[in-house]
Amino acid sequence: MTTETLSFGADVSRLLDIVAHALYSNRDVFLRELISNAADACDRLRYEAITKPYLTVDDPSFKVRIYRDPRTRILTVVDNGIGMNREELIKNLGTIAWSGTAAVMEQLGQSSSPQDKLSLIGQFGVGFYASFMVSTRVKVVSRKAGEDQTWVWESDGKTGFTVREAAPDEAKQLIAGRGAAINLTIDDNSSEYLLEEKLRMVVIQYSDHIDIPIFLGRGDGTDADNGAAQIPVNKASALWMRSRNDINDEQYVEFYHHIGHGMDKPMMTSHWHAEGKIEYTALLFVPTLRPWDLYDPGRKNATRLYVKRVFITDQCDGLMYPWLRFMRGVIDTEDLPLNISREMLQHNPVIQKIRTSVAKRILGDLDKLAQDNPMQYGAFWGQFGAVLKEGLYDAPEHRTDLLKVARFHSTEKADGLVSLTDYASRMKPEQEHIYYISGENIDNLRNSPQIEGFKARGIEVLLFTDTIDDFWLQSVLDYEGKAFKSVTKGDVDLSKFNVPANDQTEEKKQEPSKDESLRRLLVIIQETLKDDIGEVRYSHRLTSSPACLVAAENEVDLRMERVLRVHQKYETPSKRILEINPDHALIRRMASLAKAGSTGEDMADAAHLLLDQARIIQGEPIPDPADFARRLSYFMEKSLAA
Ligand code: ADP
Prior knowledge:
Oligomer: single chain
Strand content: 15-25%
Distance between the termini: 95 Å
Strand order of the largest sheet: 1-6-5-4-7-3-2-8
Largest sheet: 8 strands, mixed
Radius of gyration: 33 Å
Bound molecules: adenosine-5'-diphosphate
C-alpha cells in the first residue's frame, strides 16, 4: 500500500496557522463545521440519487453519527453522504478553491481581534480546517458513492498531508460503505469534546435545524445498535418547513450560520410560505456584513434551491436577482419536478415567478425595516445599498419598490440618509426637479461650488457617491414625475426661487450681460481658454466661489465622464463649460482690468488659474501642474511683495 505525501496549498498553510493561534475563543464551531459538511454531503447524494437510485440502494436513510472514545482520545464524525475519492480529498482538503482567498488572507493578516478573524474566516468557510483547533491529528476515511476504493487522508495540520488506500478495518468505519468518517485526535486542552454532555449540547445548539438525524455514540461504533444511540440528538426536520412560532431567534441564527457560513448575525430574517399561482417556502437572511466576494464576477448565487425538501443546488443563477445576491437562505418549492436538471433551471418559468415574488416580498420587508428601525436600515443601506441600486436599471419591474427603499446622502442632513419621499415632501412649490450632484467623496460634494446657489435658496441637493449612481440615472429619469437633474450639467435657472430675505449677497446682483466690463472679461477668458473649454458663462449657481466647471446639457455628466475614462470607454474628453461668478471680488477685479484694456499676460495667467482651481475642486487632474505652479508662484510673489 503506497502512501503519498503532499503539501498544503500556500493559502491553507496560512489559514491553518491562523486557526491554530487565533481562534481559541469559540472552538465549538469545529463540530458545527464538520456536521455542516456531513449534512451537505448527504444533500448532494440525495440529489444525485434522484437520477441514479442505485447509489443509495444499500442504505437510503441518510444520517450522521458522532462517536467518542475517551481511551484513544478519538472523536469521529461519520456520514453516509456522497463521500470523496482520492482526487477530491487532495483538492478539497488540500487547497482553497476560491479566487478571492488572497484578498481575505490579506485582511486576516491585518485585523487583530479574534472575533474579526473568526468572522472573516467564516465568510469563506474555514470549515474543515477548524478541526485543527482541537486536535493534533485528523484522519479522513472516505469512499465516494458508486466507486469501490476507500481512501485515507491524514494530517497533523502543519505542513502537509498523506493520502493512501484504506486498510479493510478502516473502511469498516463507513456506514453502508460510502461517505466520510472524520477522525480527530483530540488534544490535551480540548478533552471536553470527549464528554457526551458537551457534544450533545454543541449539537443541539448549533445543528438542531439540520434535517438529517445526528446520533451520538461511544467507542468505535459498536454501540450503534443500542437503544440510546437510536434516538437522534437533533429534531432532524427542515427548519424552514416549521411554523415561525416554533422557531426562536437563536435557531434562526444558527441556521443562518449553517447555510451562510457566516459568523455575523442576520440583519433581517424573512420566513414565509407562498401559495397561489406558485407554491414555495422561503427562509432568507440579509447578512449584517458584506461578503468579501460581493463584487466578484465569478461569485455564484448563495441561495439554496430545494424541491420538496430535497436540496437541488446553490448555483441557480436565475433564482435571485443579481442585485439581491447578498441574501442567504433557502427556497423550497413544490412546483418543480425533483429530477429537473440544473441546466434547465435558469430559464424555467417557475424559477422566474419565484424570483419576482421573492424580490417583491424582500423589498416589502426592507421597507418595513426602514420604517420600524431607520438606524438599522441605514446600516443595511451602507453595506448593500450600492448593490440594490443595480436593480434600478436591471429590473424596471421592481423600480418603484426599489426607489421607495433607496436612501441617499443629502444637503439637508449632515449625517444620515434621506428617502426620495422625504425629498419630495421638502421640494419647493415651484421646484420641478430632484437635484443631485455626483462624486467620489461626500465631504467634497458638500463643499462643491456647484451647489452653493442651491444651498443659499434652501433647495435640497442629493449627494451621490456610488459609481453605480451614474449608471442607474441613465435609465431612471424621474421619481413620481419629478425628473432627476444633475447640478453639474446644463444651465440651471435658480432665479424663480426666492433667496431668504436676510441673504445680502443676492441684493447686489445685477444682470452681468448688461455690464460692459463683465462682457469684455468673458470674451478675454473665452479667447484665452479656447483650447481647453467649450464655453465661458456667468453662473447662477455660485455664491462664494469664483468659478466652477459644468457639463453642457447634451454632454455626459462630469463624474460619469471620469468613471468612463477609468474604464477606458471614453477617449476624447469633452469640452466643459466654465462658469464664473460675477459677484465674486476676484471676478470683479478681473472685469475692471478688462475694462481698462488689460489683455496681457496677467489676465491670461489668471484665466488659466481660474480653470485649474475649478478642476482641482472637481477632483480632476490639472493637465500641466508645472504651469499651474509657475502661475501660482507668480501671483503669490506679487501679492506678498505689495
Ligand atoms: P466548505 O464546506 O466551506 O466548502 P470545507 O473546508 O469545510 O469548506 O470543505 C471543503 C470541501 O471538502 C467541501 O466543499 C466538500 O466538497 C468537501 N467535504 C468536506 N467534508 C466532506 C464530507 N463529509 N463529505 C464529502 N465531502 C466533504
